[in-house]
Design a protein that fits this description.
By secondary structure, the chain is mainly alpha-helical. The chain is built from eight helices and four strands, in the order αααββββααααα.
Length: 285
């Protein structure tokens, strides 16, 4: 029907152009950002899933840093105890030498001097070794001398507990008992009067220190496995997020080209439909 008031063809062409323009705008936005989902309207369910996965990935990345920091802290403590062990071995060697009848009083006095210096340094290492400004091995105040909880995942339930307090307290007590110079600057008599008994005390101290080191090593190994597992989960979670949120450039480029062609065709048809009103005027001539 020819009408001046209503041009159905033009209305249809305009409606088609509007839909095509929306589709073209969506394709151009996706291609410019690289994301298939740029607003909740693009894919409400997909956005919810992708956001949850991104939050999980972000939390796991922080947890991975936590495990690295925790490992570094435990390695610092282990390194300090390794030096303590070396000093205890040297002190035991001195006690063993002093126990022999071939050692003169002067020899024992000289060895006692070195023994006292090592005892003083044992106290320095165990009381002052720190990580991030916090003491690690000091009795009652050290981080290792208390129950530790490491956050090893993105959720509140993913924690790792390590408690070496009992073993460390025993080690500190045994080391202190092995050297009079551990707590106070004094001249000891371990090698000049009871060298043989000192050997046993040092063996006990060494065993206690090594027990703490064993616990630290076990915790370090566990944290290493935690890190590897988190890395694997994070990688696969990121891949899953990408499958949901990232745009397929090949497919979207084809959609954009199709929309551009439809825009050109729709514009041409709108022009043709608008010329139909002139046909009415020809009937009135």
């Amino acid at each position: 029907m020819l009408s001046l008031h209503t041009n159905n063809a033009a209305l249809s062409a305009q409606n088609s152009l509007t839909r095509t323009q929306t589709s073209l705008s969506t394709s151009m936005t996706r291609l410019s950002t690289g994301y298939r989902i740029n607003s909740a309207a693009d894919d409400a369910a997909g956005l919810q899933i992708a956001s949850r996965l991104k939050a999980q990935t972000s939390g796991m990345n922080v947890a991975m840093r936590n495990t690295q920091n925790a490992t570094s802290m435990l390695q610092t403590a282990d390194g300090a105890l390794d030096e303590v062990s070396n000093m205890l071995i040297r002190m035991k060697d001195l006690a063993t030498q002093a126990s022999d009848s071939s050692s003169t009083t002067a020899d024992k006095t000289a060895m006692q001097s070195e023994f006292d210096a090592l005892g003083k340094e044992l106290g320095n290492v165990l009381k002052n070794t720190s990580f991030g400004g916090n003491k690690l091995l000091a009795s009652g105040t050290g981080t290792i001398d208390a129950a530790m909880t490491f956050q090893i995942g993105a959720s509140s339930t993913e924690t790792m507990s390590v408690n070496l307090k009992t073993d460390l307290d025993q080690a500190l007590s045994d080391v202190s008992s092995a050297s009079a110079n551990y707590n106070t600057a004094t001249t000891g008599t371990e090698l000049t009067s009871s060298a043989n008994a000192t050997i046993g005390n040092l063996e006990t101290a060494l065993a206690s220190v090594n027990k703490v080191r064993s616990g630290l090593g076990a915790a370090e190994n566990r944290l290493s496995h935690v890190y590897n597992n988190l890395s694997n989960i994070s990688t696969n979670t990121k891949a899953a997020t990408g499958l949901i949120q990232d745009v397929d450039f090949a497919s979207e480029s084809a959609n954009m080209t199709s929309s551009q062609m439809l825009m050109q065709a729709g514009t041409a048809m709108l022009k043709q439909s608008n010329s139909m009103s002139s046909m009415v005027m020809s009937l009135l001539q």
